[in-house]
UniProtKB/TrEMBL annotation:
Pfam families: PNPOx_N. This is Pyridoxamine 5'-phosphate oxidase N-terminal domain-containing protein. GO terms for cellular component: cytosol. One of its GO terms (molecular function) is coenzyme F420 binding. It comes from Saccharopolyspora phatthalungensis. Residues 16-130 form the Pyridoxamine 5'-phosphate oxidase N-terminal domain. InterPro entries: F420H2_bilvrd_red/Heme_oxyg, Pyridox_Oxase_N, Split_barrel_FMN-bd. Keywords: Oxidoreductase. The lineage of its organism: Bacteria, Bacillati, Actinomycetota, Actinomycetes, Pseudonocardiales.
């Protein structure tokens, strides 16, 4: 698994694009896996805590329980107005629950509605952006993994 900080060091321009897109909207879509293996989508917010990309959750929320049982996730950044003027952003990886002193420090800083809210650090296995070329004739897809780095594809 790769932390946000490691990803940003390996692919700084891509990380900058992803960060700008995730900060452009408050709400994004998180996919987790239910007990039976079927997907569940939930609204979520993400934030950076130090070097880490994180998400929080209300105590006992289904998405938190899903992530505790099976940490695999996919996150689709809010696509905005649908114009594709800014690239679409998708991330996948594993969510690691933050507990103990670090979770308590987060609660003291962020002041979520409940002191027993969940905090997860997102470790990345892939990052993808899909955007439209400047001349609007084709898609530009950037795909990053820890093993292959960043690859760029175009599609007409």
């Amino acid at each position: 698994m790769t932390t946000w900080q490691e990803f940003a060091a390996e692919a700084p321009e891509l990380a900058k694009t992803v960060r700008v897109r995730l900060k452009a909207a408050k709400h994004h879509v998180l996919a987790t896996l239910r007990l039976d293996g079927s997907p569940r989508v939930s609204g979520t917010e993400v934030a950076w805590r130090g070097p880490d990309l994180t998400l929080g959750s209300m105590p006992g929320a289904r998405k938190a329980l899903d992530l505790r049982r099976d940490p695999r996730f996919a996150l689709h950044g809010n696509p905005g107005d649908g114009s594709m003027m800014a690239p679409d952003v998708k991330l996948a990886g594993r969510a690691v629950e933050v507990t103990g002193d670090e979770q308590r420090a987060w609660v003291a800083e962020v002041k979520p509605p409940s002191e027993d809210s969940h905090l997860f650090r997102l470790e990345l296995t892939e990052v993808t952006t899909t955007g439209v070329s400047a001349d609007q004739t084709h898609l530009i897809i950037q795909h990053w993994t820890p093993t292959e780095g960043t690859r760029v594809f175009t599609r007409k």
